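Re: export button greyed out
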Amino acid sequence: MTSPRALVSAYWAAAEARNWEAFGRLLSVDVVYQAPMSRERVSGRAAYLRFNAEGFTGDWHLAVERIVADEVTAASWIQMTDAGETYPGLTFFEVADGLIVSVTDFWPQVYEPPASREHLIERI
Amino acid sequence: MTSPRALVSAYWAAAEARNWEAFGRLLSVDVVYQAPMSRERVSGRAAYLRFNAEGFTGDWHLAVERIVADEVTAASWIQMTDAGETYPGLTFFEVADGLIVSVTDFWPQVYEPPASREHLIERI
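Workaround output, generated via the alternate export path:
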């Protein structure tokens, strides 16, 4: 049975390749996608394939920064490049019977740290 | 030797308790904290303890939503409540010799999804 780490690695490789057939083979028929910060939910493999294939048609590219995985869950940190900008995506996965059953992702934005902690940090 | 999962669990428990002595015992002397979206870096245990103890003095509380861990890395998803608002924090950890050597966190903000994918989602 495919491990959560291998599933997530294959998930991002299939997304980068726009290979939605391979992508779909990693998903449970009941997979649920959620993006808490934009309050989006997509339920079921067919809808989630459509969401990916039709919702993001640009010339984006991704690189996996880190995958952490145990027996039933995984988390990934990717760098997405789109329209000349690169930004991170953080995703939490749940796996059952060798298939991805839930995907929850976060797309944080750039912000300025408060002046109150300026003396405690250095800027990268 | 303390596992990455146990370290991260203890890290958030110590933060919630403002037990900076216990918090410090989980960290390598060379720990590096980074917040990529605000371009903040804090280097070394002493500086990172000061950053936490002095940089965030409000009446915040956190609850762990999920911890994913393997042998040398971990990721956590927490819910932070501060000033009546609750929002997620996503953190990636690296561990060596039973101590946390790097902490990278992300604090995503609320955003509206583009109208172009409105027909592909439901709102949570």
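The longest helix of chain B spans residues 4-16. The button fix ships in the next patch.
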